[in-house]
Design brief:
By secondary structure, the chain is of the alpha/beta class. 25% of the residues lie in helices and 25% in strands. Strand 15, helix 8 and strand 16 form a beta-alpha-beta unit.
Length: 330
């Protein structure tokens, strides 16, 4: 058993978890909301350490990360659980319900990655931040062996633990579910502000991309898209890629799928502020090429998860006009 990294005692047998903004108060013998830490005799114990419920080799575009080492493959693994309870969760089978897992210690994860001749690992699928202690241990050994570490996350973590984790992470995709705090409270049991704070901290030191799942009748107003575009441009930078993803009915939500024209309107609005906006989870895939915002030159062509050609000069700039799109190639 491993003690959690961030908690404090409220009394002899009650503790408060300090990993995420929910600040669960946990009585002896009980779990926190994320089901990954349990109060045992007045100490908060990590119960998900090294327990993996899904592992696959994916194209990095599937994370989605479009401007970080495009066309490369990445070993992706996920845990069981989440600190949010989104009624529309698209991965609810592993985030909201207990499932079978297998133990993969950090040294074994390194060996599995090397055996596949890969140099990137993504913690993804459910919510990796509740895997904090395991990711910290894995990231150290992976980075020491030249393997990059990526997180795909909801961004719901407190400042102190994120600052401890941040030096070990190379890239993130963070899901901003809405620019409305009431949306987070009513549909996710979460908060908006901590997610925005995590985005700001991540943008300071690593490659960052943002995803917004557009849900019919919930976060699809034009005002929200303007707010999202302005926040990303002003706080994270206008070259930060934004992925607008189509919602489909899932888990506890039965709203109809997002209309395609809503996604196109969202892209039109957010492109007033951002250089790179992509529309995803639609067939056929549209709006997935990366073009130079200055001259329109095709920088990266994508068809689904197939990438190529990539047309950048040896400094990563547009070969036509010299614009630097911030794409990480190597």
């Amino acid at each position: 058993m491993q003690e959690a990294a961030f908690f404090h005692q409220l009394d002899e047998l009650t503790v408060q978890c300090d990993l995420c903004p929910l600040h669960c108060r946990i009585h002896d013998g009980h779990d926190g909301i994320c089901r990954s830490r349990k109060n045992i005799g007045g100490s908060l114990i990590v119960t998900n350490y090294g327990k993996v419920c899904a592992m696959h080799v994916d194209p990095i575009e599937k994370k989605p990360l479009f401007h970080y080492r495009p066309g490369q493959e990445i070993l992706s693994l996920g845990n069981n659980g989440c600190n949010l309870a989104c009624r529309f969760c698209q991965n609810w089978q592993i985030s909201q319900s207990p499932v079978a897992t297998r133990d993969i210690p950090p040294k074994d994860l390194l060996a599995l990655t090397q055996a596949r001749k890969l140099d990137m690992v993504a913690f993804t699928y459910a919510e990796p931040l509740i895997w904090f202690e395991y990711i910290m241990d894995c990231a150290r050994i992976l980075r020491e062996n030249g393997i990059r570490v990526i997180l795909v996350s909801n961004g719901m973590i407190n400042r102190e633990p994120f600052l401890a984790l941040r030096p070990w992470i190379d890239a993130m995709n963070i899901d901003i579910k809405s620019m409305d705090d009431a949306f987070y409270r009513n549909l996710c049991n979460g908060r908006l502000q901590p997610v925005l704070d995590t985005c700001r901290l991540a943008a300071e030191t690593m490659h960052l991309e943002i995803t917004n799942l557009v849900i019919t009748g919930e976060n699809d107003s034009e005002n929200r898209f303007h707010e999202l575009g302005r926040f990303i441009a002003n706080e994270l930078g206008p070259d930060t890629p934004l992925h607008l993803s189509r919602y489909f009915p899932s888990y506890q939500m039965t709203h109809p799928p997002t209309p395609i024209n809503t996604l196109h309107r969202a892209a039109e609005i957010t492109r007033q502020y951002l250089h790179f906006v992509f529309v995803g989870n639609i067939h056929p895939e549209e709006s997935s090429d990366s073009r130079c915002p200055t001259c329109g030159h095709l920088l990266i062509q994508r068809r689904g998860y197939t990438v190529g050609p990539i047309d950048l000069d040896n400094t990563g700039r547009c070969p036509q006009c010299g614009f630097d799109p911030g794409i990480v190639l190597t």
